[in-house]
Amino acid sequence: MKSLILQTIARLLLPLMILFSVFLMLRGHNEPGGGFIGGLVGAGAFSLYAVAFGPASARGVLRADPRTLLGLGLLVTVLSGFFAMVLGDAFLTGQWLIFHIGEADFHLGTALLFDIGVYLVVVGATLTVIFSLEEEST
Amino acid sequence: MEPLLAIMAGFLFASGLYLMLRRNYVRVVIGLILISNAANLVIFTMGRLARGNPPLVATGETMPAEGFANPLPQALILTAIVIGFGLLAFALVLAYRAYRELGTVDVDAMRVAEPPYPGEKTVSGTPDQEEA
Amino acid sequence: MGVLISLLIGCVVAFAAPLLNRAAGSRAGVILALLPLGLTAYFATFVPRIAAEGALRQSIAWVPALNVNLSFYVDGLSVLFALIISGVGFFIVLYGSGYLKGHRDLGRFYLAVTLFMVSMLGVVLADNIITLFVFWELTSFTSYLLIGFNHEQERARKAALQALLVTGTGGLALLGGLILMAFVGGSYEISELLNQGEVLREHGLYTAILILVLAGCFTKSAQFPFHFWLPAAMEAPTPVSAYLHSATMVKAGVYLMARLHPALGGTDLWILLLAGFGAATMVIGSWLALCHSDLKRILAYTTVMGLGTLTMLLGIGQTEYAVVAVAVFTLAHSLYKGALFMVAGSIDHEAGTRDVGEVGGLRKAMPITAAAALVAALSMAGIVPFFGFIAKEFVYEAALAAGSLPRLLLALAILANVAGVAAAGIVALKPFYGPVRTTPKHPHEAPIAMWAGPVVLALLGLLFGLAPGLIAAPLINPVAGAIAGAPVSVELVLWHGFTPVLGMSLMTLALGIGVFFLWNTWRESRFARGFNRAFGVAPENAYFRTIDGMLWIAHWQTRIFQSGYLRHYLTTVIGVTAFAVGFTLLSRHGLVLPGGWSAITFYEWTLAGIMAAGALVAVFARSRVTMVVAIGAVGFSVALIYLANSAPDLSITQIMVETLTVVLFALVLIHLPSLRPVESRASRLRDAAVATALGAAVTLVMLTVLTEPISPHLTEYFGAHSYVTAHGRNIVNVILVDFRALDTLGEIVVLGIAGLGVFALVKLRAKKRRDGGADV
User: What total of structural domains would you count in chain C?
Assistant: First the structure.
């Protein structure tokens, strides 16, 4: 599907959508969003790119094999759970660091790490599916 | 709108099941999608609905506003949607692979795992024609 | 505690046996025999204690919620059997080490035989009926392994399966009977049930209990018409036959009947069933023995006779004579039959055949074995001064003292024992005397490990015959007392003087010797052949026909229920579910409709309309593109419903997934053919009916649930803790990544596996194509 319009749009949209997906994931703890939604948007961005330019180019932009992302994501989620075990809580209990920067409180916790893992798994799994099917069609 | 959703969920279940009972595997997959949606609607409705009050804690507050929507079904459904997508992908690719291997998408002709009994009348295993 | 520990030690030794066999080589048998020897010594210490203090009980809670205790009850009856099991077990392990010397599976033999011994001890020592049943099944299981020891031979496998099926079926009936008994008697402990005899016998379920329990005992103890598995089980190596099929396992049924006699015995039904089947088994078994020339088969059928005798005695067990006869005969039979089986095995082992017609004059080559055989056979024939004589006297006395039909029972007992005398002669005389015949192997005396058992067991038969007072008070009286349920005290003496029973014994002996000399004539007579066909072959054929019939039924019902069509399975499962749910709901609750219809706004009706239209189009679509668009419409409507009802996260997720779904369909559907085939009108109508039923059931359940208030507990908990404890303002996300993070972890693992599954499905095929496979 080599369409000039689609290719132009895809090239423009890819960085925007990736930024948006990371934004969705990061704010997910407080506003609608999160790892699942962010991951789906991120996967959507690369799928669009793959439809426009073919899976090989999309893989080039992504750099890593989606299966690596999938495995990495699972590893991150499990690791985020081990923090709690090291500190004596049950597996996956949320652990938090709270910084006071001026007026605002800034919360940093293992839940964010967990959500990053979820994001990576969703991106990895979806793109594994889409890329392999695209490669089958070309 | 709970009673209306109850009827809609039933309707989607019925349509989905009818499609899952078809011989063409593509229809079976479509039925699967409808049933996934219907199941999500059942969970959503059973947790009761709330209009215009999402389960969010406003900035500066420590508790959500009174009458906020039930968050637990939402959490369940959110993962269910994504897993449903994974299942759909797998089912579709299975259809594709089965067609490549067996030359048919007619589930009645797919008798490799449970071969016909001796003397049983079966549907013809001739491959379906590729559409032009 | 002691009993449990001794059984646990046995288990550990059993599983260590194969290793020991590898490490210690030929000495392994002697080392392993120390276990049964130690157990014999241990159980012997109970004898004086029980004679002095009565029964002992040990208990440890095992599954308290189900009233299952690891409890053990040690009284005279248990100890007699425990001593036989461990004592004979000692010689069997020794004998097996010689008989199977150099066999590549000797370690497996040690394992199974030791495990069997432990299970059998568990049966006779258990107090809790569930514990008893577990051990009972373990004996069936280990005997399956032992009968099928030579698993390369089809006959051995078949015999093992046959024994397992017959005793296992009986075991199931037994479990039912035991549970009913516990239900009626109000306890799972045998020691307490024994005091509930009145209650049990007068309860309406008594007949059911008795028949179920006896079904277990009769199959285990090879009573007619279930006796056929015992001769077939002679496929087992001889040490196994000597142990399981003469001295121990087949007596488990007799043990249980004796054990439960105080609780269930004495009724007309009990007398009728036990005396009837016992006497029939006794006569049939004894004369079938004379229809064969295979030493082991002869012994197997005389064992059937012995088991029949014991069952008959328990049937008429209301007299002192009968219970003492059970005790004496059990011991005497174990001694001489164990010895004779081992002798038969030694002949087979040394001469290469065990057919009576093919061996002769082995006396010179195997003098010790011949002597042991002679002594054991004299006991079996019931000749003064051997222990078997005392046993036979008591059997006759018990028959004469029976409450009903004493003359008939006595006549039958004499008829059986005549054949028994002849069989003893055949087994002990024919192979060793007469002209020397050439055998497949050049015979030698068996090694000491193989003659020690027969010699000691046979000599014990002589010792107890000469000095019965040795065991009367400490052993026989407690045993008889346990069976009778009341203290018994008799004096065992060898010589009763000239009584009518002595006359019967002499007559039995004379007739038996006559039959011995006429054996060949009898065996070839038409009557003997017909007898064997009717009572030996026919029951076994009935078994085979039953098995074939069950296979036929299995095949027939599989064809009906497992059609191989996904649609049929779905229709069945969903049709039943929808009907069961809908029917239960309507019959229990009636049709209740929640309110709130008027609050539905116009745009909600519109969304519902779009959804319904989308679903209908998807159902009737003839083109794949239409179909994808239709389910897209449904999916986006659902997303809007989420959005309108305060679920923004769901809405975004649904929209993203719908988008990706379209991409997926675009990628896959171009490879697939059109939407044909289309089904017949009839099947479409049938499917529509099932589908409508499911939809109606779902709607009905939901509407009913909506009339009930929902518990706000969880909602409030998550609301209160989301920010305060988990530092998150989006409660849905907090649930996903914190409160229920383990669920989420599981779910992303599923997603990952689905992704990898797709990858495998696509790529593996592609690789095959590159290899030039048969793919298109």
Answer: 2
Q: Which residue of A has its CA nearest to C727?
A: A107
**Are the beta carbons of B72 and C718 separated by less than 8 Å?**
yes
The answer to whether A55 faces chain C, any CB pair under 8 Å, is no
Could you count the other beta carbons within 10 Å of the beta carbon of residue C411?
15
Q: Are residues C464 and C552 in the same domain?
A: no
Residues C381 and C411 in one domain: yes
CB contact under 8 A, C615 and B97: no
Check A137 against C667: CB less than 8 A apart: yes
Does ipTM top 0.90? Answer: yes
pLDDT value for C773: 44
Sign of the alpha-carbon dihedral angle for C402, C406, C408, C413: positive
Inside any domain, residue B78: yes
Q: Which of A66-70, A96-100, B76-80, C180-184 has the lowest mean pLDDT?
A: A96-100
* C325 touches C394 (CB < 8 A): yes
Minimal C-alpha gap between A68 and chain C (Å): 11
pLDDT of residue A104: 67
Condensed to tens digits (0 to 9), the pLDDT of residues C33-45 reads 999 999 999 999 9
The secondary structure element, H or E, covering residue C714 is helix C713-722
**Cis peptide bond upstream of C474, omega within 30:** no
Lowest-pLDDT range, B123-127, C434-438, C567-571? B123-127
Domain tally for chain A? 1
Task: Examine the fold and report which residue of C471, C504, C524 is the final residue of a domain before the chain moves on.
Answer: C524
Q: How far is A30 from chain C (nearest CA, A)?
A: 4
C269 touches C180 (CB < 8 A): no
**Which contacts of B47-51 are long-range, i.e. CB under 8 A and separated by 24 or more positions?**
B47/B72, B47/B73, B47/B74, B47/C710, B48/B2, B48/C710, B49/B1, B49/B2, B49/B5, B49/C645, B49/C646, B50/C645, B50/C646, B51/C644, B51/C645, B51/C646
Structural domain range at position B34: 2-50+69-109
The domain of C549 spans: 527-556
For the stretch C517-530, pLDDT in tens is 998 888 888 888 99
* CA C701 – CA C581 distance, rounded (Å): 8
Question: Residue B41's closest CA among C608, C678, C126, C298?
Answer: C608
Q: In this complex, which chains have at least 3 CB pairs below 8 Å with chain A?
A: B, C
Residues C416 and C545 grouped into a single domain = no
Average pLDDT, chain C: 89
Per DSSP bridges, beta strands C68-74 and C56-63 are antiparallel
Rg from Cα positions in chain B: 21
**Structure confidence by residue, pLDDT tens digits, A64-115:** 999 999 999 999 999 998 888 888 788 878 888 777 776 666 777 888 899 9
State the alpha helices, DSSP H only, in C25-153: 28-44, 46-53, 76-99, 106-125, 129-147
Q: Residue C422's closest CA among C316, C304, C510?
A: C510
The CA distance from B32 to the nearest CA of chain C, in Å, is 11
Query: What would the two tokens of residue C525 be?
Result: 């007579």
Interchain proximity C735–B130, CB inside 8 Å: no
B40 vs C contacts (CB less than 8 Å): 638
Which one of C659, C664, C751 has the shortest CB-CB distance to A122? C751
User: Considering the domain boundaries, does residue B79 fall inside one?
Assistant: yes
Answer yes or no: is B74 within a domain: yes
From CA C595, how far away is CA C592, in angstroms rounded? Answer: 10
Q: Helix, strand, or coil here: C73? A: strand
CATH of the domain at B23: 1.10.287.3510
Q: Which domain holds residue A75?
A: 4-137
